[in-house]
């Protein structure tokens, strides 16, 4: 799309990025998104905490990866820029970090141009694409990432929009086959686990609420189903857990579980 052409924003149906932004306390959302967001909050009040815990997990995961020597990030399903995006967390510690963001929502595109400001030493690029089109994603990402060096593939809150298991696996595998050993895979995903703290049925009801409103199609997966998305990689401790429980920062209290699970895995030599 030419630079001077504004992307078309559909404000008649709720969009995933905008509802997520609403739950995170952002302002880039419309009445239709807030209504859908509130309807979900009615059946699943913990969902807003999920969005915040997902972001906190992103921060801890990126800091861990930078410590492991990772300087390249391919972040699929960017969402609307908010505080502490992948590039901000990575470049704060390692300014030379290179980040490529990919999303298919035109509103994300509109804001990405203005907000994804890189450090001088590193780079930060945005690709408007559907993550199902892995060939385009890789071709565009290769313009700024060096695929002969390790890359962290970040899929936060986006594979829950790929309803078919085989398709989700194909997307992950399609990108992973380009990544060299020593690369990483980071996933977070809406989860319908039932535990002492979580009610899987409330999450399924929340998903039905979004679907009925014609929002971005979404599905929750069980922890086992999320773990399967890590096929071909070595899942690191503590495995697939609630975002609030993935290597939490030291604190006198334990954060409650949220119905958004995550994991980090390393790509070993094949
Ligand atoms: C819930 S938001 C998550 C944002 C961010 N990754 C985070 O965790 O805070 C999901 C994002 O995925 C994007 N998305 C959904 N399906 C997509 C697809 N098929 N291709 C590209 N982006 C997609 C949405 O537009 C939205 O911005």
Automatic annotation (TrEMBL):
InterPro entries registered for this protein in UniProt: SAM-dependent_MTases_sf, SAM_dep_MeTrfase_SAV2177_type
Pfam (any one): Methyltransf_19
Gene3D superfamilies: Vaccinia Virus protein VP39
The keyword Phosphoprotein is annotated on this UniProt entry: no
Enzyme superclass (EC): transferase
Recorded GO MF terms: methyltransferase activity
GO BP terms: methylation
Superkingdom of this protein's organism: Bacteria
Record keywords: Methyltransferase, Transferase
CDD domains from the UniProt entry: AdoMet_MTases
EC number: 2.1.1.-
Protein name: SAM-dependent methyltransferase
Lineage: Bacteria, Bacillati, Actinomycetota, Actinomycetes, Streptosporangiales
